[in-house]
Amino acid sequence: MERYSRQLLVLGLELQQKLSELKVLIAGCGALGSTIAELLARLGVGEITVIDADIVDITNLHRTHLFTEDDVGKPKAEVCANKLSKINSTIKINYIIDIIDEKNIESIIINKDYIFDGLDNLYYKLLLNDAAIKMNIPLIYGGINGEYGSAKLIVPNKTSCLSCFVDYSNTGEETYNACDVIGVTPLIVELTASIQVSLMLKHLRGVIDNSLYYIDSREIEIEKINIQKSISCKSCSLREFPFLNQKILKPKCGIFRLPTEDFNIEKPKVSKTSGRTILCYPKIGCFEKRGS
Ligand SMILES: [Zn+2]
After folding, report:
1. pLDDT of residue 289
2. Can you tell which superkingdom this protein's organism belongs to (predicted)?
3. Please, what's the largest Cα pairwise distance for the chain?
4. Which residues surround ligand 1, an ion (CB under 5 A)?
5. Rounded to the nearest whole angstrom, what is the distance from the C-alpha of residue 35 to the centroid of ligand 1?
6. What's the rounded Cα separation, in Å, for the pair 147 and 163?
7. How far, in Å, is the centroid of ligand 1 from the Cα of 162?
8. Is residue 266 part of a domain?
9. How confident is the model over 214-272, as pLDDT tens digits?
């Protein structure tokens, strides 16, 4: 407890104990995910699982808290887990090199107390939202774009959800536009991740916050917008879970699992040919990165 002596003065023993008993999943360990992961490890969350199929790229370093130049080319999830275990060796850390999709998401989030959204693709954020509502697990959404960010606590059966206020269009052309590379600064990453983790602490203290937090790091303003539950929401109201049940066309960009199983490699292999990037991991398999 010496490690947390300064934190105990603020949070108290009861909340610290609750943190030590939590099992948390962080979907995506890029900019948002790795910042959230570091905050949770330092706070003393008992078990942290990170999932990501991507590798560290030189273009990640300006905004990604945990990564250094030595990590380029290594799996993000593994790098995150190794760094977290150096920050706090008293907690349990798991990593999964994989994407989340409709096939595996329910088995990955089962028995978790909180899910953090560190994803960069709206389709998969909404898939995560569907799964969290279905499995009755609190989800803490976060999104960043340029110098702006947003965050929201989603508690199934109690608050509005991501599908209540996000309109996802799945026509081919528009989906591709949504795959464009977006600019981002490290400042908005830190602010958004901090609000996501603060929303978990607020919830642990017994407060259910239904607000969408809109963060403007350019003007340094945070706006709280009350989001009402939509009676026509296909996730939390109608419980049709269209993303989980594959009623929505998948985007053309992102990371996709390939049917090939390239097990004859000793370390991660990246190959780029005619605009395609193929990532292969020993004993795991291969993924294709498309778009951004
Ligand atoms: Zn909803």
Report:
1. 87
2. Archaea
3. 57
4. 161, 163-164, 233, 235-236
5. 27
6. 23
7. 6
8. no
9. 999 999 999 999 999 999 999 999 999 999 999 998 888 888 988 876 667 888 888 88
Two tokens, residue 115: 């899910």
Q: What is the dihedral of CA 214, 137, 94, 47, to 10 degrees?
A: 90
Question: Does position 170 have pLDDT exceeding 50, yes or no?
Answer: yes
Domain of residue 7 covers: 2-251
- Separation of 72 CA from ligand 1 center, angstroms? 38
Residue 41 lies in a domain: yes
In a domain, 260, yes or no: no
Cα(169)–Cα(249) distance, rounded to whole angstroms?
9
Distance 203 CA to ligand 1 centre (A): 19
Catalytic residue among 179, 233, 236, 280: 179
Choice among 125-139, 143-157, 275-289 with the minimum mean pLDDT: 275-289
Hey, what are 175's tokens?
């989906």
Active site residue 179: yes
Whole-number Å distance, alpha carbon 145 to ligand 1 midpoint, is 22
How many domains in the chain? 1
What is the 165 CA–ligand 1 centroid distance (Å)?
7
The answer as to whether 278 is a domain residue is no
**Angle between helices 31-43 and 76-87 in degrees, nearest 10:** 20
Query: Which candidate, 129, 111, 26, places its Cα nearest to that of 76?
Result: 26
